[in-house]
Specification:
CATH topology: Rossmann fold
CATH class: Alpha Beta
Distance between the termini: 46 Å
Shape: globular
Radius of gyration: 18 Å
Low-confidence stretches: 1-8
Structural class: alpha/beta
Order of helices and strands: HEHEHEEHEHEHHEE
Largest sheet: 8 strands, mixed
Number of helices: 7
Strand content: 15-25%
Strand order of the largest sheet: 3-2-1-4-5-8-6-7
Number of domains: 1
Mean pLDDT: 91
Length: about 270
């Protein structure tokens, strides 16, 4: 039986991100983050802590000793098993309100890509990451950079995000749990980044006043959900179907380094002594 995964606007399902420039660029953000992580995952026992559809876990498994990839969404894990199975890669469903089902110090590297912004209790999540890392273990984490997405104090216009971080706020959060924290930024060619920056600016202003800090979160999410549904109704029928397009930009046009600006994502490397 062919297992398919329903797009939500947040899940990275590769075949749904190859038909227009915006989606292709978002796909590249994820790929470049996983490429960056290869330095910390090659020949290592790795936990992908929030693996989604599993494409990135499969990338890591090409050079890692072993990868365990977990997610709270059962349908995403079932899709990952069906599409990305590898000998050294295991997918598992976890419960969001329980400790990870792994012994302390089991992993050398934990990956957390585009997860922390979704969490009600990021400290509990990070405590579990620390627990399952051995001494000298490394967390590699990627999350959107709010500085190019939101006005000061503005709540996220992505209805699935609870908190988006700046370089300073992410460093402060991670430093509560890790001894050494380095924050990098994801930048790139201006003409390529402008595709995402224009989208972010449009949504930054379009979603006011529902994203103002005093707006109850229930109303924020309801209003953003209604806007998303309206855009889907007006989208041309079949716009996400058909063969993948070829684009004039790719991974080489994005990079991760110190103080790259403008920055579309933050990438943190946090170490446990």
């Amino acid at each position: 039986m062919q297992i398919e995964l329903t797009p939500t606007g947040e899940r990275m399902i590769v075949q749904h991100y190859q038909h227009d420039e915006q989606h292709w660029l978002i796909h590249l953000f994820h790929v470049v983050a996983y490429r960056f992580a290869e330095t910390f995952t090659t020949d290592k026992n790795v936990l992908d802590y929030g693996c989604g559809s599993g494409y990135g876990s499969a990338m890591v498994a090409q050079a890692a000793r072993s990868v365990v990839a977990v997610d709270v969404a059962r349908d995403a894990v079932e899709y990952a098993i069906a599409h990305h199975a590898k000998r050294n890669l295991e997918f598992r469903v976890i419960r969001p309100d329980e400790a990870l089902p792994f012994r302390s110090g089991q992993f050398e590297t934990v990956l957390s890509f585009q997860v922390i912004e979704h969490l009600h209790d990021p400290d509990a999540y990070l405590r579990e990451a620390v627990r399952v890392l051995g001494p000298g273990g490394t967390l590699v984490l990627a999350t959107p950079d709010r500085r190019t997405r939101l006005l000061p104090l503005q709540r996220p216009w992505n209805r699935w995000h609870l908190t988006e971080y700046s370089e300073r706020s992410l460093s402060r959060l991670l430093s509560r749990h890790f001894n050494d924290v380095d924050i990098y930024t994801m930048g790139g060619e201006k003409s390529v980044l402008d595709i995402e920056l224009r989208r972010a600016r449009r949504l930054m202003w379009f979603t006011l006043p529902f994203t103002l800090p005093f707006m109850p979160d229930r109303l924020r999410v309801a209003a953003l959900g209604a806007g998303h549904a309206a855009r889907r109704r007006w989208r041309p029928k079949g716009s996400n179907l058909g063969p993948p397009r070829r684009f004039q930009f790719g991974e080489r046009d994005l990079s991760i380094g110190r103080d790259l600006w403008p920055s579309v994502n933050l990438v943190a490397v946090a170490r446990r002594r």
